[in-house]
Amino acid sequence: MIFAIVRTALTGLRRDRASLALNFVLPIAFFTIFAMVFSGQHDTIPRVHLIVVDQDHSAASRDLVRGLQREGSLQVTTHPEAKQHASIRPDYTASSAEAAVKSGDFPVALIIPAGWGAHPVDFGANEQQGPKLRLLSDQSDPIAPQIVNGLLQKAAMTAMPASMANEGMKYTEEYLGTFTPEQRKRWDENMRYLEQVQQERANEPDANSSSAKSTSSSVFSGGIVAVDTHSVVGEHKNKNLISFYAAAIGVMFLLFTASGAAGSLLDEADSGTLDRVLSSRVTMSALLGGKLAFNTLLAFAQLVVMFLWGWAVFHLDFFTHIPGFLVMGLCTAFAVAAFGILLASMCHTRGQLGAVSTLLILIMSSVGGSMFPRYLMPQAMQKAGLFTINAWAIDGFTKVFWRDLPVISLWPQVGVLLGVGVALFILARRIARRWEFA
Amino acid sequence: MSTAVSAAPAVSAQPIQVEKFVKRFGATAAVNGVSLALHAGDCLGLLGPNGAGKTTLIRGIVGRVLPDGGSIRIFGAEAGSRTARQVLGWVPQELAIYPRLTCSENLFAFGKYQGISGKELEDQIAWCLGWASLTDRGNEPARNLSGGMKRRLNMAAGIIHRPRLVLMDEPTVGVDPQSRNRIFEMIEALRAQGTSILYTTHYMEEAERLCNRIAIIDHGSIIAEGTHEELVRNAFGSSSQVVARFAGTESAIAEWVEIRGGRFAEGVAQFTVQHPSEIAALLDDAGARGFQPEDVSLRRPNLESVFLHLTGRELRE
Predict the structure, then answer these.
(1) Residue A283: its chain B contacts at CB < 8 A?
(2) Low-confidence residues in chain A, pLDDT < 50
(3) Has residue B80 got a pLDDT over 70?
(4) CA distance A437 to chain B (A)
(5) How far apart are CA B3 and CA A288, in angstroms?
């Protein structure tokens, strides 16, 4: 008897492809995505993108920049990407680097101020004599500045040992008295050796094998280079991650809502109501257009409620961002509504729609940044995320609520979301022809 | 019903003119060269068993099925065209209504879909609710209605735009006798106003009561068409039917009935006779073979008999 029940259930499952996909494909897909995000064994470990502005142009600053460039965990940039046909690529300035961080192009920028090379080391006894390094960061990515800070200390130790020793000697002479001629002679001999080592390291090509060159890192512990870290974005935000999660979670649920609402098409096809409606003056284009409009408004209303909740409970700064919210909210709602209509037009039953939409939306949400920030992901996954509605929507809302950028700066996100929405709707219209005539 | 008239195409044209309509689904011809006409003011009953092609033909007339051959014209306009849609009302076999909407909201929605609005729509909703005896249920969500009420609302939604032609695809499926009678009255009220109706069913009594002309469809083809009397006369002439039960061995009775040119099914023997006087000879022959009559009746052939005669099977098989 039990065998018969098992066999019946198994046969049913085998013929229910949607359930099969949910049972087996979805877990495997999720396992793969999470493994790629959190596994350090992957080839494309996320690297922190760092702008370096060298205002000092000293030997010490050049050594430091070279040391940072050799770090595999960093991708150091000193000048913006060249525009087409431009042969000259001017270096970043402090202000252009700050602008790049504010706009979200880079999570962190290092400014080496003029005069830093004269006193690069801060032994912590007193205030550093010269100007400090400045680290400009974006608090939406709290990990990047910490990584840069740590690697900065390491680079200072490994890339400029002679400078470090020389600076140490200066402090020694200042606080303990001058060296004897014999001490001075031995010091100079050792300095020559260190300078030779420093020169050799400087000549080494940039590499990702930082661990191989870190033999001295245990000797020189962190904090030797003073860094003044300054958040240029998000410093004064209340509950700074609220806007991110409102957008990230909001978009994911919008996708579910939109596909669920679009499923009314399947209900109507099932009940014969669709046939009756199409036998009236309503055309298929008008019907789908109406569904798209309704689903867009529904999704937008859902976003409004979510952000209002964020404002009421988590003090999200909602009312000062109304124009940007309207633009991003409507564009996002339009894109997800079109996505839902497409799914409904592709599926034949509610069950199929439920399975397919769950599968697609969860994958899109994980890759697109609704479940964890995309900067945690490997490069390849970050790029893959750009094929999702989630990523563009979250980027747009981040621009509005996090970076306080003007509405005009939303044009890439608006363009993509509207374009995607139109393309998906046109595709849905073509597929929906199957309902028009038998 | 309001006296306003829908946009009217060629007035002189027939409400429905089907010419050699063919529709195939794969290798199967659901409708195979059907020609049919519905005259103004008529109620044409389309009779046939399940799978005969009734619904496909109806969907072709509505314009929801593209023909593989032939043509269908509604008051002279091509089926499915905007003009045809304006003058045609369709009551599908399914309950094609919005269950969460109230009766009034359903009618409002379908009225809007048909392009009417404002006072005209309000009047039409009120008329339709009255026509369907749902006035006191106007604010009731459709899903809370009884089966018969849902059927009536389904019909009302099909005529909200005052069509001159109404297609009803088995509108009484699954309703109790009382609701069925109410539906008959609704249809008769429509006819009294001059609305042309095409009515599909596999219930003979419905066709006999409601339709002044009947077409019998089987295996995708019209096998007979005419008034009730014409169909019976063409099939049986002036003959009558003798229906009898006999005591005796069933197999022996069946063999004898076949020899006498009759039909034996479920213990009942049926014979066609030209004159009632033939009954005596029939009973004598039965008695001589040892089959004692238990129940004998004489009746005029009906549509069921016609269908049986033409197809060799019961309508509801």
Answers:
(1) none
(2) 41-42, 125, 207-222, 239
(3) yes
(4) 5
(5) 34
What is this structure's pTM?
Answer: 0.72
Contacts of A282 in chain B (CB under 8 A): 113
CA distance B304 to B317: 12
Look-up: residue for tokens 């912590």?
Answer: A124
- The reply to whether B202 touches chain A by the CB within 8 Å rule is no
Asked if B151 is an interface residue toward chain A (Cβ–Cβ < 8 A), one would say no
Contact B85 A275 (CB under 8 A): no
Provide, as residue numbers in chain B, all residues whose Cβ is less than 8 Å from the Cβ of A281: 82, 85-86, 113-115
pLDDT tens-digit map of B31-41: 999 999 999 99
- Cβ distance A276 to B114 less than 8 Å, yes or no, reads no
